[in-house]
């Protein structure tokens, strides 16, 4: 099968032929339909310090995907051939204190798909059956492919109550955009999102935010005045990892405000701890998704009409991966997908749909 592999300690990825995997006990074999390019994948392609110190080569990369189950190993009961699935890319030990207490997202022994074991940028991937989220209600394979980052957005956005609250989101990358969509959908009063990319802020406008603010031109205080806000934001969702964005967010919170921080800084930086203390601000770190409450929340949000399609801006056949990665790295787009369902051919639209794709299309047309 074809797969995108990091096989040399240098920048770049290679599309090569590798053996098709075989599902072991408790695992499923999945024919990959779509994959999403994540910031982690960009780090791996660049082979920066983090990647150099984390990866063991050779490695098939990628962890955001949707696909059709085509085989099961011994002991699999709740996932069947033909199911359309997304993958929870954090594979936990099941034995540590947090796993035993049902807090699997806090497992200290987590293995990352496409980081610590072969991933989903391939025609087929194996995964523990318990990590395969079966879509019981029809979902477009494009949207199903971004359930992993959508889960990050939902986990962050729903960390604190949002109904009637004023919400500030710093960073209009794909996850920030999805968090904005969630905050608007569940009933926040004002949703303000900031970035320095007009292209991404335009996408935010399509998701119904109250204000998309380019902080290269306007301050958050300017935005608050335009919305007639007087006491600061109730909830902050920090999605950028940018030191200035975090400091501006802290300065813009109301007393007793709450911040959920998903953005991962490249290095340590200073913040105004005096304001955090005297304003009694709560800061919560977010990593990944709660397994599997967040996944349930995601499915229900889509069932109730949340539309993520504006977040997906670019689609490429998998053999055009270099162009896809360059597009994702530009910082001006939404989510970038690779299509693995029709072979390495740009004319893929003329191919017959897979069983899972056909079922999803049929059910959507009947809904």
Automatic annotation (TrEMBL):
Domain of life, source organism: Bacteria
Uppermost EC category: oxidoreductase
Higher taxonomy: Bacteria, Bacillati, Actinomycetota, Actinomycetes, Streptosporangiales
Keyword annotations from UniProtKB, A to Z: Cytoplasm, Metal-binding, NAD, Oxidoreductase, Zinc
Complex formation: Homotetramer.
Name of the protein described by the UniProt record: L-threonine 3-dehydrogenase
Keyword ATP-binding part of the UniProt annotation: no
GO CC term (a single one): cytoplasm
GO molecular-function term, one example from the UniProt record: zinc ion binding
Pathway it works in: Amino-acid degradation; L-threonine degradation via oxydo-reductase pathway; glycine from L-threonine: step 1/2
Main localisation: cytoplasm
Residues of the Enoyl reductase (ER) domain: 12-338
Species in which this protein is naturally found: Nonomuraea rhodomycinica
Chain's role: Catalyzes the NAD(+)-dependent oxidation of L-threonine to 2-amino-3-ketobutyrate.
Reactions that this protein is recorded to catalyse: L-threonine + NAD(+) = (2S)-2-amino-3-oxobutanoate + NADH + H(+)
Co-factor: note: Binds 2 Zn(2+) ions per subunit.
InterPro entries to which the protein is assigned, alphabetical: ADH-like_C (IPR013149), ADH-like_N (IPR013154), ADH_Zn_CS (IPR002328), ER (IPR020843), GroES-like_sf (IPR011032), L-Threonine_3-DHase (IPR004627), NAD(P)-bd_dom_sf (IPR036291), Zn_alcohol_dh (IPR050129)
Record: residues binding Zn(2+) 1: 38, 63-64
EC number: 1.1.1.103
Subcellular compartments: Cytoplasm
Gene that this sequence comes from: tdh
HAMAP family referenced in this protein's UniProt entry, alphabetically: Thr_dehydrog
Cofactor(s) in the UniProt record: Zn(2+)
Chain intervals for the UniProt region annotation (Disordered): 343-367
Family note: Belongs to the zinc-containing alcohol dehydrogenase family.
């Amino acid at each position: 099968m074809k797969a995108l592999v990091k096989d040399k300690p240098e920048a770049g990825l290679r599309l090569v032929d590798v053996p098709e995997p075989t599902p072991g006990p408790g695992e499923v074999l999945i024919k990959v339909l779509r994959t999403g390019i994540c910031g982690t994948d960009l780090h791996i392609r660049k082979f920066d310090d983090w990647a150099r110190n984390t990866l063991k080569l050779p490695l098939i990369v990628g962890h955001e995907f949707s696909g059709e189950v085509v085989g099961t190993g011994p002991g699999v009961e709740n996932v069947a051939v033909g199911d359309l699935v997304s993958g929870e890319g954090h594979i936990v030990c099941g034995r540590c204190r947090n796993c035993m207490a049902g807090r699997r997202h806090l497992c200290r022994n987590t293995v990352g798909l496409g980081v610590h074991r072969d991933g989903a940028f391939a025609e087929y991937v194996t995964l523990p059956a318990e990590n395969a989220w079966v879509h019981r209600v029809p979902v477009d394979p494009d949207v199903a492919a971004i359930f992993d980052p959508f889960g990050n957005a939902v986990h962050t956005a729903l960390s604190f109550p949002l109904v009637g609250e004023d919400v500030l989101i710093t960073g209009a990358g794909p996850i920030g955009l999805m968090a904005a969509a969630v905050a608007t959908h569940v009933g926040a009063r004002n949703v303000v999102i900031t970035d320095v990319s007009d292209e991404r802020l335009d996408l935010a406008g399509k998701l119904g935010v109250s204000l998309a603010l380019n902080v290269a031109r306007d301050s958050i205080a300017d935005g608050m005045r335009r919305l007639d806000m007087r006491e600061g934001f109730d909830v902050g969702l920090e999605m950028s990892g940018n030191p200035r964005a975090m400091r501006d967010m802290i300065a813009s919170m109301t007393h007793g405000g709450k911040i959920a921080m998903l953005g991962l800084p490249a290095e340590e930086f200073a913040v105004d701890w005096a304001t955090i203390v005297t304003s009694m601000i709560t800061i919560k770190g977010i990593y990944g998704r709660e397994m599997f409450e967040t996944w349930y929340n995601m499915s229900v949000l889509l069932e109730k009409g949340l539309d993520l399609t504006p977040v997906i801006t670019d689609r490429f056949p998998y053999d055009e991966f270099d162009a896809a990665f360059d597009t994702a790295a530009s910082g001006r787009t939404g989510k970038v997908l690779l299509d693995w369902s029709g072979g390495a051919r740009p004319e893929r639209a003329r191919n017959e749909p897979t069983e899972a794709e056909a079922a999803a299309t049929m059910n959507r047309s009947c809904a």
